[in-house]
Specification:
425 residues; alpha/beta; 17 helices; globular
């Protein structure tokens, strides 16, 4: 099936006389006929037993997302941050390290550089535009994976996934890619060599700002028996001696994440949240196409307006990442535009406050146009040095183009320009 069909039909097939729409299974527990059946699940979880691990509604959405990304299995989480966290903790323990692109979401920078450091896991940042030799020089004997974003938030740098995947594989490590902005409709990182794909499903997948969520997708392609990952191929005594590569084969990564980490952290989404996510996914192909078309029109308008020092949108031929976008995002570059307004922080705030249709909110990739000043909000916790490394300055504006009529969006922008003109230099 093509993606548009998968978005409607994958994951759930109605039984004869059953509900045509995927039902909400609103239950924490599942009943069994015998004690043995319940006990057997603690040796090999082949069915739902408790909704901190899995749920039939969420399971259907997981299968749909795995099919869309071209993976073998997926696990939903309660947020995108939880997906980022568990993807790393599934590979790294105290005393180990991982590589991470400098141009990623500010909250993830803090999670990796501050919080994980407190737990003894080192994050080694690298510039994704650096040469292979420069990046490989950062790898230590205890480095266990590489992390990056397909389309970085908010810099909108496009990662050369194939190159970084090859680099990781040469060094016996998997590549984890956050594919939140493109979604699998615009880019499938696994097809370019990524081993694990994560999303904040809060963004385009949900699309309507209804619920927070995340997901981890396992490609099934990485060899966990290469000597660096004994936790995957030796008995897990915390789960009755299960051996993940032996007992779950290609789905070893997700099985370990679910049986070790989801069991202990319990960051699983509610069934109703998954139901809402599924509704969003059903229209994802149509929405991603229109987001991209609207954003291209708006980006060109910004570029020609004269109000901005820089307009970053990989769909523009003038953009630094245009060539990479033609390789990885040839069907569109989503709806987010990164702008640096002339005049710095004061004029950035005047522009945003001058918008009437677009909402000033801590969100992005919504069905409605929204705007944010990263240095004051999502990246507020970063040091000046980290802000520079992430491509952020006080005049940076993240403009997320929605699905309103594009002419109304342009009129709103023109009104905000009037507010900028009223600010003294």
């Amino acid at each position: 099936m093509k993606d548009a069909t998968k978005c409607l039909h994958s994951g759930y097939t109605p039984e004869n006389g059953g509900p045509g729409v995927m039902p909400i299974v609103q239950s924490t527990t599942y009943a069994f006929n015998t004690t043995k059946e319940v006990g057997d699940l603690f040796d090999m979880p082949t069915a739902h037993m408790y909704s901190r691990f899995s749920n039939p509604t969420t399971d259907a959405v997981e299968k749909k997302i795995a099919e869309l990304e071209g993976g073998v299995a997926a696990m939903c989480t309660s947020s995108g941050q939880a997906a980022s966290l568990l993807s790393i903790l599934n590979l790294c323990s105290a005393g180990e390290s991982f590589l991470c692109s400098t141009v990623i979401y500010g909250g993830t920078v803090n999670l990796f550089a501050v919080t994980l450091k407190r737990f003894g896991i080192e994050c080694i940042f690298f510039d994704p535009d650096s040469s292979d030799e420069e990046i490989e020089a950062l790898i230590k004997p205890n480095t266990r994976c590489v992390f990056g974003e397909t389309l970085a938030n908010p810099k909108l740098a496009v990662m050369d996934i194939e190159r970084i995947a090859n680099l990781a594989h040469r060094n016996g490590m998997p590549l984890i890619i956050d594919n939140t902005f493109p979604t699998p409709i615009l880019c499938k990182p696994i097809s370019f060599g990524a081993d694990v794909v994560i999303h904040s499903t809060t963004k385009y997948m949900d699309g309507h700002a209804l619920q927070v969520g995340g997901v981890i997708v396992d490609s099934g392609n990485f060899n966990w028996e290469n000597g660096k990952y004994p936790d995957f191929c030796t008995p897990d005594e915390s789960y009755h001696g299960v051996v993940y590569t032996r007992d779950f084969g290609k789905a070893a990564f997700i099985a370990k994440a679910r049986m070790q980490l989801m069991r202990d952290f319990g960051c699983y989404p509610a069934a109703h949240s998954s139901f809402l996510l599924n509704i969003g996914i059903e229209t994802l192909p149509i929405r991603m196409k229109q987001y991209s078309e609207n954003a291209m029109t708006v980006a060109k308008f910004f570029e020609e307006s004269g109000y901005f020092e820089t307009v970053s949108y990989p769909g523009l031929k003038s953009d630094k990442y245009y060539d990479l976008a033609q390789k990885y995002l040839k069907d569109g570059t989503a709806g987010v535009i990164s702008l640096t307004i002339k005049g710095g922080r004061k004029k950035a705030i005047a522009f945003m406050d001058g918008l009437k249709l677009a909402r000033n909110e801590v969100h992005v990739a919504d069905i409605r146009t929204c705007v944010l000043h990263p240095a004051s909000a999502t990246h507020r916790q970063l040091t000046d040095e980290q802000l520079v490394a992430a491509g952020i300055n006080p005049g940076l504006i993240r403009f997320s183009v929605g699905l309103e009529d594009v002419n109304d969006i342009l009129e709103d922008i023109k009104g905000a320009f009037a507010a900028v003109d009223a600010v003294e230099d």
